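INFO batch 0412 | record 1 of 1 | parsing
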Amino acid sequence: MPSAILSPGLSALALGFTLELAVGEPKHWHPLVAFGTLASWLEVRLNLGRSRFTRGLAAVCLLLVPALLAFALARHYAGWVADGIALWFALGAKSLYQHIEAIRAPLMAGRLDEARAAVGRIVSRDTSALDETGVCRATLESLLENGSDAVAATLFWFALAGGYGVILHRLVNTLDAMWGYRTARFERFGKAAARLDDLLNCLPARLTALAYALCGDTRRAVAAWRHQASGWESPNAGPVMASGAGALGVRLGGAACYHGQREIRPALGMGRPPVTGDIARGLALTARAGVLLAALLTALEVARWIS
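INFO prediction complete | emitting tokens
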């Protein structure tokens, strides 16, 4: 087991942050790709017949338990290095920026069709008929929510349970993204993954909402969080997106088309509809919130080391 330069926690943090900033998301052989392929294979074989909720729960266990055991083996031999690599694999800050920039750049150049295609790669709604406002709205909603899922929750679970917490959260979040839909196919089978994801993201989402409020228009963010979050279908996305929209002074939510069905969603935030320039403001807000949370985590690890 390699010896840590500082404390194991601080050394793992430094390794994870360095790899995230220097490399970003691995282009090849990403473990989540293999995990997703295995999850798809298992879903086809288990998501049929009766007792689909029980089958879905069994699928979650069959996927998570071996993954956590494999990480335990890696950590036995690699120690804090395994924690740092787990943090790198799970952090999605640089990848999130790249996905959002792939939407913002063509919008700025007036290439709406290209921007629609790019936003369609990160959201589940139909984007083929979106106007500029619709693209901006979908982009900001995804950015604010993923600022919680891909950054804040990863840091939270690293602080709480190290690499084990990071691995557990990221894999459950992946299963929710694959199966957590209220469709005929996934309504029952994906419920276990969706509920577990709600549980794991409950505190991180509210921590993210607080960070957005502190890093933007605090008064509007808190008001939107208090009065609008509970009306959103997702108990965790509601506080995050309401606070983020309020912090930016824009209005999100409204009509959207999912799986061929038009849905009228509650309004989030207050002020005008978003425009292309608000995407850069959203990136700046999530960056400030991410830096704030990373600084708090580092301070916590320093305090542990000193004590």
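INFO post-check: Residues 8-306 form one domain.
INFO record closed
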